[in-house]
Amino acid sequence: MYEERFDKRKFDELRPMEAETGIIPNAKGSARFKIGNTEAIAAVYGPEEVKPRHIEKVNKGIIVCKYDMLPFSVPDRARPGMDRRDIEISQVITNALNRAVILEEMPRAMVNVRIYITQADAGTRCASLTAASMACADAGLPMRDLVAAVAAGKIGDSICLDLTKEEEDFHEGGATDVPIALLPSKNEIVLLQLDGKVTREELKKVIEMGKKGAMEIYELEKAALKRRFLNESKS
Ligand code: ADP
């Protein structure tokens, strides 16, 4: 049984969040998204000429995305360099960004997206996607919508939003974790993964809770971008 959350949050409550854009002057677009003790920084370079040339697509652009969990982001020190987990997360983030960015509007071009996790306390792929989509918008890429992402899941019998690492590890055999990414204005899910066990009915509740959380994140993302463009038009 998990009746009260370790950090006293309600079961459908997100951790405290911060979002800002335009944090890396040399990048075309950049953003930082922090949720609890998880923080992602994203930088976007391009659109530019495709290198190596043979991966160029004549009728659309391509996104090359790298997720990097920095060694000092976790208590045990993560191994530097890309491991299998980093490669998998880079791929699912790319798949989701491919749905958000209108690639057809940038033929023969390439966009590089770099994501750095400076602190990890679960939910890093979702924080990465949120930061990366804000950075793409900050870079002025043509987009169908922002991506808002958060994990929901189950601990004991309780359906929970935005699990911490402590919560993920708490339940015997592990909690159930379901990262969800949404194009909010289209109500389109662009990433859905499941780590653990849930019934069909529970999964529906988990997805509903995740979507509601994503809508809150969406508001924060929009506010961060508005702040940036208002400041820019003033200067
Ligand atoms: P996500 O970060 O998207 O939830 P995982 O479920 O793979 O992805 O990881 C859950 C959490 O486990 C991470 O956010 C991080 O807190 C922790 N973690 C992942 N990899 C490592 C690692 N190599 N060393 C220490 N902690 C890690």
TrEMBL record:
Stretches assigned to the Exoribonuclease phosphorolytic domain: 13-142, 145-213
Keyword Nuclease: yes
Localization per record: Cytoplasm
Keywords: Cytoplasm, Exonuclease, Exosome, Hydrolase, Nuclease
Listed GO biological process terms: gene expression; nuclear-transcribed mRNA catabolic process; rRNA catabolic process
Keyword Hydrolase found: yes
A single GO molecular function term of this UniProt record: RNA exonuclease activity, producing 5'-phosphomonoesters
Domain of life, source organism: Archaea
UniProt cross-references to Pfam families, sorted A to Z: RNase_PH, RNase_PH_C
An example Gene Ontology CC term for this record: cytoplasmic exosome (RNase complex)
Oligomer and partners: Component of the archaeal exosome complex. Forms a hexameric ring-like arrangement composed of 3 Rrp41-Rrp42 heterodimers. The hexameric ring associates with a trimer of Rrp4 and/or Csl4 subunits.
Family the UniProt entry places it in: Belongs to the RNase PH family.
Cross-referenced PANTHER family: EXOSOME COMPLEX COMPONENT, EXOSOME COMPLEX COMPONENT RRP41
Protein name: 3' exoribonuclease
Species of the source: Candidatus Parvarchaeum acidiphilum ARMAN-4
